[in-house]
Design a protein that fits this description.
Elements: E1 2-4, H1 5-11, H2 18-27, E2 31-39, E3 46-57, E4 60-69, E5 75-80, E6 90-94, E7 109-111, E8 114-116, E9 119-120, E10 155-162, H3 173-184, E11 210-213, E12 218-227, H4 236-244, H5 252-264, E13 269-272, E14 280-285, E15 290-293, E16 299-302, E17 307-311, E18 314-318, E19 322-323, E20 336-343, H6 345-355, H7 360-365, H8 371-389, E21 392-393, E22 398-400, E23 409-413, H9 414-421, H10 427-436, E24 440-445, E25 448-452, H11 464-475, H12 496-510, E26 514-515, E27 521-522, H13 526-529, E28 550-551, H14 556-567, E29 575-583, E30 605-613, H15 617-631, E31 635-639, E32 645-655, E33 659-667, H16 669-674, E34 682-687, H17 688-694, E35 710-719, H18 724-735, E36 739-748, E37 757-766, H19 775-792, E38 795-796
Parallel strand pairs: 11-14, 26-29
Antiparallel strand pairs: 1-10, 2-10, 3-4, 3-6, 4-5, 6-9, 7-8, 12-20, 12-21, 12-22, 13-20, 14-17, 15-16, 17-18, 18-19, 23-25, 24-25, 27-28, 29-30, 30-34, 31-32, 32-33, 33-34, 35-37, 35-38, 36-37
Helix pairs in contact: 1-3, 3-10, 4-5, 5-8, 9-11, 12-15, 18-19
Length: 798
Amino acid sequence: MRVPLSWLRSYCDPGLPIAELGDRLASIGLQPERIEHVGVGEASGFVVGRVLSCEKHPDADRLSVCVVDDGSGEERQVVCGAPNVAAGQTVAVARPGAVMPDGSTLGEAKLRGVKSSGMILAEDEVGISSDHAETMVLSDDLAPGTPLTDALVIEDDVLDLEVNPNRADALSVYGVARDVHAFSRAPLAEDPTVPDAEPSGSNTADDYVSITVDPDVCLRFSARVFEDVKIGPSPLWLKQRLMAAGQRPISNIVDITNYVMLATGQPLHSYDLDKVRGGRIDIRRAQDGERITTLDGVERTVDSEVALVCDGAGPTGIAGLMGGQISEVSDATTRVLMEAATWVGPNILESSKKLNLRSEASARFEKQLHPELAIRAQRLAARLMVELCGARLAPGTVDTYPRRAEPRVVKLRYERIERLLGERLPEDEVVAILGRLGFEPRQAGEGTWDVTVPYWRDGDTRREADLIEEVARIHGLDNFTATLPERPQAVGRLTPDQRLRRTVEDSLRDRGLAEAISWSFMRPDTMERLRLGDVPLLRLDNPLSEDQSVLRPLLLPGLLDTAAYNASRGRTSLAFFESAHVYRASGSLSTNGQLPQRGSTPSMEHHHIAALASTGYRALKGVLEGVLDGSGADWWPEPDERPFLHPGRTASLLAGDERKLGWIGEVHPLVARAWDLQGTFSAFEFDFDLLTEVVPEARHYEPLSPFPAVIQDIAVVVDDDVLAADVEATVAIGGGDLLERIKLFDEYRGEQVGEGKKSLALRLEFRAPDRTLTDEEVAERRAAIERELEELGGRLRG
């Protein structure tokens, strides 16, 4: 929602700088996405001038040479190309040095040999509209030299607010002004919908049109009739407000409907009354296959779920979305039927999605407006129609309101406020805040109020907690003590699975990995980029975009996306993990053991934990070992291959009764290239839900031995194709129960061990629980280790 600051201040001026106002709005839930400056760059160079003379340019038929009094004491010669410029006019003038809306600085120039000192301005040259055809002609009561800002708003700041779906009232400038009034206590101008135009003429609105409504799609339909309408351009003040708010001025009729929508939040629609066939309006559901050509010139086919506005001969518009060409207002229009309706929000939302047709009107209607807003918007529109179009308003309003809504009353308890907010606020402050927001609290007992909800907040204020939320956000969430309230009745603890998950996640953080959070959706071709193109995927019926049209079956793609994002910004040293849900059809990823299955009946949703690091396979394997060993799981790696991992540098993770817990390995170079990643990346991923099944319920601990360990390093020479895990297992057999720990800390290939061989350096830690080991006992274990290694075809280096 674009809110021009000058327009907002006309309703409520808190006297705050724009940046501070934006911060305060953000604190109450109206976050400015950006603050934009519109209009001229600096207003001081723009003044009111009067054209003293106007002669044709001697060498250009379309140019005029004007002499202008700009209040400076000296007459100024200006060459102008506008066809309507004439002597005696009061105009807007830019002096040399003025900064124009595009950022350029105006200087003196020669146009076809004639000096021009300044510029007589058209509307687009001060950002009031896009019209460049003619010069702006101002009121004659403005004296030359008067700052142009006294006559027009030629520079403004615009708050582009992010409005939550429950705050339909904040999709209007006056709605935002209510919130500004509530937090700042600055005076709030009278609701612009309160004054009404005086009716004129003898015929009533009922004499021109009759209305029938299907209450399942329309809660209220009101119409007013205007005669002797004069179509033309809107006044400059109206154009400026529309342009700043993001709407292009078109004509006074169209501009009035847009202005009322932006001011109040209620969309309107105008009909050429002479084109309303049969003098009737019928609101009904469409027939399947029915067609209508909308205002954008597109012929659309609708079905029975879409609501239509019809006249006596057929459809004239799609309810809440867009009117039809058949009754469009044109320059020849003299009689106007003005509609203000309240449509059923869910129906508008579904119709908009089905027809792929969104508009400013549908964005408001789909959030469910209150029927009271429609008749109030009619009042403002009627006044503007009379003032700006010279129209005669026929007395009365055709108002079809089949299911009248009564004001909502919500009970509020003072005790409940303190319990929810954890802090006691003065009662008079609670009442004052609600009053400034438009609520009407009425004392109903000791510490209890019956609060009448204003119509503009009826949609999202239905419970006691909603009222308390309003009090909290206006009081200021930052003003509450940053502690949790005492809850002596709260019971319950973390489940074993929750404790295990926190343990695993904390273990990864402790090892230097940052936590990443990625989308649950991904592109359809992601699995092909992982060289897994044949995997069935769960597709969304209504994706936000094609890049988010399928649910992820594993976490690795999101981590690769994160790595690519960081690498493209120079952050190439990476290590992070993600703990989140994945989604897959039953059995869809069981082929080739790509991902584990949980039990015999796999479900669609699993919780996985995955990690990615810009490091080698063994380094990340050490992290994984620490994490899984710390969980108490009985697990082991087993050589395996997957299309997205480097051959020979990958393993499956087995646990329990040899169920596949997950995998670990180096990312395949082709996969890394698909994500534009340079260097070596390793990853692992495992099914946390399965881990919870294989972790023992009870953990048994043994006391640390008080006796010292004997630490020895050995180097084992084996064939190049022998796995390090097999060497470790063989050494463990030879070491027996005295060998407490084995750690691989180096690997060597080269001339000293021979071709086809490698040397693995292992650190051995021997310890007995009840005594200090002797050299003879350790030597016996070393000899046993050598014998076991010979069975494997290995030997110790001297």
